[in-house]
Amino acid sequence: MTIQSWTFLFVGITFTLYLTIAWISRVRDTKGFYVAGQGVPAAANGMATAADWMSAASFISMAGLISFMGYAGGMYLMGWTGGYVLLALLLAPYLRKFGHFTVPDFVGDRFESNFARLVAVVCALFISFTYVAGQMRGVGIVFSRFLEVDINVGVMIGMAIVFVYATLGGMKGITWTQVAQYWVLITAFLIPAIAISIKLTGETIPQVGMGSHLLDEGLPLLAKLDQIHVDLGFARYTQPFTGKWDKLNVFCTTLALMVGTAGLPHVIVRFYTVRTVKAARWSGFWALLFISMLYLTAPATAAFARYFMISSLHGRQVSSPADLPQWFQNWEKTGLILWLDDGDGIIEYHGGKQAQENELFRRGKLDAGALTNLRVEHQKWLSTSGREGTDGRPELRELGYTGPDRDIIVLATPEMAELMNWIIALVAAGGLAAALSTASGLLLVISSSVAHDFYYRILDPEASEARRLLVGRIVIGFAVVIAGLFGIFPPGFVSQVVAFAFGLAAASFFPVIVLGIFSKRVGTVPATLGMIAGIGFTAFYIIGSVYGGMSNWCFGISPQGIGVIGMLLNFGVALTLTPFCRGPSRSTQLMIESIREPEGAGAAIDIDSAPEH
User: Fold this and answer.
1) Average pLDDT over residues 353-378
2) Segment of 198-212, 235-249, 395-409 carrying the highest mean pLDDT
3) How far apart are CA 548 and CA 413, in angstroms?
4) How far apart are the C-alpha atoms of 510 and 566, rounded to whole Å?
5) How many Å apart are CA 221 and CA 201, to the nearest integer?
6) What is the reported pLDDT for 390?
7) Does some domain include residue 344?
8) Cβ contacts of 457-463, under 8 Å, gap ≥ 24
9) Within 13 Å of residue 40, how many CA atoms lie on the same side as its CB?
10) Which residue has the higher pLDDT, 189 or 155?
11) Confidence check: pLDDT of 220 > 90
């Protein structure tokens, strides 16, 4: 069977499974829609959390980033993993004991203000739409390559699937769908890594293979990569703190990803779906175990991919398109990797000063028309004598297209390694599972933020159960359309966009949650102004730096790490204003004491019935 046939088979089976689970798990009340009836077993919730957590950024893009960045790329792995530990141990059990549906719910009731709730709703929407953009782009990339459809068509197919099972089953359907998606994505990630490790080094365990000798080279894999990098003008693969990724930027980005994790609303809500606080803690344990299976394998996959990509391309003599590697021909059709010959018929891939001669480019936002024009100009140039004219490379460099798209690396590696067709197709199904699982969780956060926190808690507190459920489903419909537009017109590659979402979460939700749980003195005004200052500064810096041409003027910190400064600003504003502003009421202070008590020592106090003293 061909790769496409295997892909249709795997995608058909998995999509049928997801839709069947959604139909069986369909709900008719808001508790089932938003928190799965709070009846999910801890181990199952751990799998669902892992699937929700391991998005397209983790499955598709993280290993690609490590592959290109080398040592510095480990900050994504450390930040995301460390952040989950922080969330599971420091915040999640307290939020579960509080017992509400969402983060804006916690903010609104803890700080006794619908305006604070509204600010939290805006933050949740901003974070979720930024995050979901990366997921929909991941869906489009998988479909464009493996089903050979346009990226935009792939995004629309993904939109339709997510809409059906998110609206039918709500959190209950999403949870059990994510359990299935976890096993699809982890199987799809591990099998190619194991197969490539055996092929390159003879070792079954990829982590061991990464540190072992290559069978046909006699050198350790990492030593060979270092040697190749030096020869081509790149920094050594294992060299720390190179280029713009100095110590400050690595530290800030790692910390932003870490505290951003602890403030992500779509992950936090998973801890509301279990029966007890104890189950919430065990959910954290199971999720971390399941997550580690992918995260500990990603560096090995990255090293394998880097070795295969360079060794199969650089210095290759090409007299006709048929001389290009088959994997390159397959992915060139998507426009996510491009080679424009300078006339010598040899593929060159350089770093450092020689990077200006780099002939491998990614398309990114370059549309089909612009790509065609570049090819026409290239052919005109080749038909002329000498080196006059243009081959399109200067225009590409001006737009920042200086290497293969980072998002194709994991998906293309099985083809680079010439693995069996069914393994290549399995990776496609895994990539879709990773993207769709997180997208569905984010869409539910968007729905709950608008339908529950804004419509029900602010606009119409008397709304019936059926009406609230209807509004929630309608909001998901609108959110799917907006998410699809972000996937069609992506603001960046997957992990870059996701890193922005983590920075926004770090700057807005993490401080207000920490202060809301561990301080009985911080009141409405300081907390609200802190959120506004944190997310306002961070959003301004990211948008200005990435899309407005603004320099990284804040100590040279990159947009991926600026969430740390936003977080400090949030804390600073809140704590500075606290002595001058009114604190929380006595009933709220009692509620804070209640959720901080050990399990069994007391239950959360209903704010409306707590006595005033």
Assistant:
1) 55
2) 198-212
3) 34
4) 11
5) 8
6) 46
7) yes
8) 457/105, 457/108, 457/114, 457/117, 458/114, 458/117, 458/118
9) 35
10) 189
11) yes
Q: Compute CA distances 269 → 182, 265, 296, 463, whole Å.
A: 18, 6, 25, 23
pLDDT > 90: percent of the chain: 22
Residue 563 lies in a domain: yes
Q: Give the whole-angstrom CA distance, residue 117 versus residue 135.
A: 27
- Scanning the structure block, which residue is given the tokens 């959720």? 595
Better-predicted residue by pLDDT, 306 or 501: 306
Q: What is the pLDDT of residue 372?
A: 61
The answer to whether the beta carbons of residues 535 and 566 sit under 8 Å apart is yes
In the prediction, which pLDDT does 541 show? 93
Distance of alpha carbon 152 from its chain centroid, rounded? 19
Continuous H helices in 202-246: 206-210, 221-232
| pLDDT (mean) for 408-429 | 88
Closest residue by Cα to residue 306 from 404, 218, 445:
404
The lowest-confidence range among 16-25, 388-397, 426-435, 538-547 is 388-397
Q: How many CB atoms lie within 10 A of CB 315?
A: 11
- What CATH number is given to the structural domain containing 525? 1.20.1730.10
* pLDDT score recorded for residue 577: 96
In the DSSP assignment, the letter for residue 352 is: G
SS3 call for 336:
coil
What is the reported pLDDT for 261? 83
- What residue type is 108 in one-letter code? G
Q: Specify the pLDDT at position 609.
A: 42
Q: What's the rounded Cα separation, in Å, for the pair 81 and 79?
A: 6
Contact between residue 40 and residue 48 where contact means Cβ atoms under 8 Å apart: yes
Task: Tell me, yes or no, whether 538 lies in a domain.
Answer: yes
How far lies 502's CA from each of 83, 99, 253, 452, 551, in Å? 10, 24, 10, 23, 21
Mean pLDDT over residues 433-440, rounded?
Answer: 81
Angle at 229 between CA 228 and CA 230, to 5 degrees: 95
Same domain membership, residue 466 and residue 436: yes
CA-to-CA distance for 95 and 298, rounded, in angstroms? 31
DSSP assignment of 457-512: III-TT--HHHHHHHHHHHHHHHHHHHHHHHHS-SS-HHHHHHHHHHHHHHHHHHH
Q: Is residue 254 part of a domain?
A: yes
Query: How far is residue 136's CA from residue 190's CA, in Å, rounded to a whole number?
Result: 23
Kindly tell me if the per-residue pLDDT of 371 is higher than 60.
Answer: no
Exposure of 555 by Cβ count < 10 A (0-12 exposed, 13-18 middle, 19+ buried)?
A: exposed
> Within this chain, do residues 50 and 192 fall inside the same structural domain, yes or no?
yes
> DSSP class of residue 541?
H
| 274 and 127, same domain (yes or no) | yes
Instruction: Give the bridge partners for 220, in sequence order.
Output: 213
- Residue 384 and residue 421 in one domain: no
Are residue 383 and residue 446 in the same domain, yes or no? no
Q: Give residue for tokens 């990803």.
A: 257
Q: Around Cβ 93, how many Cβ atoms within 10 Å?
A: 23
Based on the structure, what is the number of domains in the chain? 2
> Which of 556, 610, 571, 569 shows the shortest CA–CA distance to 249?
556
Q: Give the model's pLDDT for residue 359.
A: 57
